[in-house]
């Protein structure tokens, strides 16, 4: 992301449950914003690369989410499916500052 890229506030960190997610509605595809047990935050397009299942409804464990439809494990940091599966969910830049979650607009 460019150094001076704009950021938009999405929500408070507390608005995302630990080991859960929050959906951000967008005209060109919803985002799933995930929070891990250690308060790391990640954002992916809310579609599994396999069959388009809602990743936001998956189970978060470590820095992975498991798709609720067919059990694909998706790495939250990269969006990449874990072996033996192949594919990638689009990821988005996020940051947490002073308890607020921001999405990078680039």
UniProtKB/TrEMBL annotation:
UniProt keyword list: 2Fe-2S, Iron, Iron-sulfur, Metal-binding, Nitrate assimilation, Oxidoreductase
- Name the source's superkingdom: Bacteria
**Which GO MF terms does the UniProt record name?**
2 iron, 2 sulfur cluster binding; metal ion binding; nitrite reductase [NAD(P)H] activity
Q: Name one GO biological process term.
A: nitrate assimilation
Question: What residue stretches are annotated with the Rieske domain?
Answer: 8-103
- Asked whether the keyword Repeat is assigned, the reply is no
The keyword Cell membrane belongs to this UniProt entry's keyword annotation: no
The protein depicted here goes by the name: Nitrite reductase small subunit NirD
This chain's source organism reads: Chitinimonas arctica
- Which gene does this sequence derive from? nirD
